Amino acid sequence: MTARAATRPLGTVTRGTTNPNRLRRMDRWIAATHGAELRRASDPVAIDLGYGAAPWTAVELLTRLRAATPRARVVGIEIEPERVAAARPYEREGLTFRHGGFEIPVPGRPALIRAANVLRQYDEGEVAAVWERLRARLAPAAGGSRGGLLVEGTCDEIGRRHVWVALGPEGPRTVTFATRLGSLDRPSDLAERLPKALIHRNVPGEPVHAFLRDFDRAWAAAAPYASYGARQRWLRAVRDLTTDWPVTDSPARWRQGEVTLAWTALAPRT
Known about the structure:
This protein has nine helices and eight strands.
């Protein structure tokens, strides 16, 4: 991470590219899988870190979270002051914007930090330190709560293909692959959207490469189901994957064009 003076935000300015509805797959997954934790939180604050040149993703995150958690609040954080000023007219009850970076300049400990397309420009060797800093800002596990959630990943410009890692205060938990099924030729098309921690590990000998290879094979074997639609083919392919890979979600999520695996199965080899 770029060295900064103590009074300046931590991080570097991103390209700021954004589009309405770009992060819908990630948002819906968060609402479905983390909604119960947000409802239990005394102050369910969600951070949209690095929302970009326009505030659409923060506005949409609030709408989607409130469908599951009516008390949810969203704070959009940007390292570029001009982007914060441009977003301020969109503030309303439950939605504010602040100048900042990886230090997450909000009081308390957020229940959620979403960082989409933020680490794309960083070196792989910088990811672990960023993850550690952001995890340290999450609400801690306590009682029956697993604590806050950091969701970090990458998607294409219109949100058809997306891969993200979910991390708790204790460390990485899962990796989710999500796609608009009609846009998919084969599952390994998602490789170009792997988050920075994995994208350079898609080479022989690394777990993520083996997973995508097996996913393509399962997809090819499920070709007869294509006559019933891409969703049925995806469902069959994912079901076959569960024989050898620790898939953590259920057909209800697979039907959305998703599959989630334990991080330990795909973590880079050291």
